[in-house]
Amino acid sequence: MFTESEIKNVSLEKSPESVNFCAVWPAAKKGLELLKEIVKNSVLKGVIGTVIGLGDGFCPSK
Asked: Does the reported pTM lie above 0.70?
């Protein structure tokens, strides 16, 4: 769980005092993919898919 100060310091840039979004994205993506499999609502599945797409856009795999 992140603290409030960590949430305020989220960054797409590497910085020792901030949480790097791309560093945590693989774990977050895995969780979202699992959630998408569990959810029955097609609209919510679409929203989760959009979030995954946005995350992949910010942090493309190597």
From this structure: no
